[in-house]
Amino acid sequence: MAHVHHFSYGIYNPIAAYLLAFLGSFLGLLCAGRARDAHNRSRRNRWLVISAFAIGGGGIWLMHFSAMLGFDVPDSPVRYDLALTLLSLGFAVLTVGVGLMVVGHGTRSTAKTVVAGMLTGGGVIAMHFTGMEGMRLPATIHYNPLLVAASTVIAFAASTVALWFAMSVRGWLRVSAAAAVMALAVCGMHYTGMAAMSIELHVSAPLPGGIRPLTMLVPITVITAATIVGVALSALQAMTEEEFTDGAGTPKRGIHAETAQPWSLKQASMGAVRLTPAARAVMTNRAVAGRPSPKPRPSAAPAPTAPPATSGS
């Protein structure tokens, strides 16, 4: 069996992987929280789709391949197949999106969360081993069944916990703590699956074709920036629409537009004028006679009376 390095760049790879997993999970949980507060189904679906890209694309897939940059076989070059690499990205985003759609609509229940967690966990496992299948090197890859089973259990548990967090936690502190737990679980699943792998090199086999690992730094950086910017812009646009429109998508008239009555200048001016009974009678008589009524005047305050004189004792 060939010697394998999982941390060829030292501690930088696991730290970068964990930070990407944390950032993706954090943004995804924030978007899931907005989805719970959405007024209609279309807006809820929009927030859930944004959350799926943040968690599946950023928190899982980007974490996986940033960690894979530290994978190295000293006796053989390692290359990656672009089509399978992109397919693994599709698995991550799609399955996380399906899980969020299942738990994001209807009545929440433990059974629904567990079923959605199984679906999402299966997609995460498919993403991981599709990415591993995309590796190109002159060797045969073997897997330890026990460690593969352990990584599968971790993926199912991490996905279920992530979906439960997505539908339950609120507040910056709790979301941050939940994202930290999710990132730890995703990294644990990845490195457990990597530990299950062993490589048997074939010296006479031709060198593989594909993308060099360091060449993937540019697309990973671009995809990371695009994911963060896209999630931020989509969230900002959705928040702006929710701020200035009501649940039906019609513009609001003001802060209390749902309960306040339309305001008019006539009502304000008439409410500010207090008429005496005599002035009301004059205005009524002029209206009956067809003559224009004079402008109402505010009633005068009664003149103060002098205090009674007191005789000296």
From TrEMBL:
The keyword Transferase belongs to this UniProt entry's keyword annotation: yes
One Gene Ontology cellular component: membrane
Stretch list, region Disordered: 284-313
Source species: Actinoplanes aureus
Transmembrane segments: 15-35, 47-70, 82-102, 114-131, 143-165, 172-194, 214-236
GO molecular function: kinase activity
Keywords: Kinase, Membrane, Transferase, Transmembrane, Transmembrane helix
Pfam family, one: MHYT
UniProt feature, compositional bias: Pro residues: 293-307
Domain of life: Bacteria
Segments forming domain MHYT: 9-200
Protein name per Swiss-Prot or TrEMBL: Histidine kinase
The keyword Hydrolase is assigned to this record: no
InterPro entries for this protein: MHYT_dom
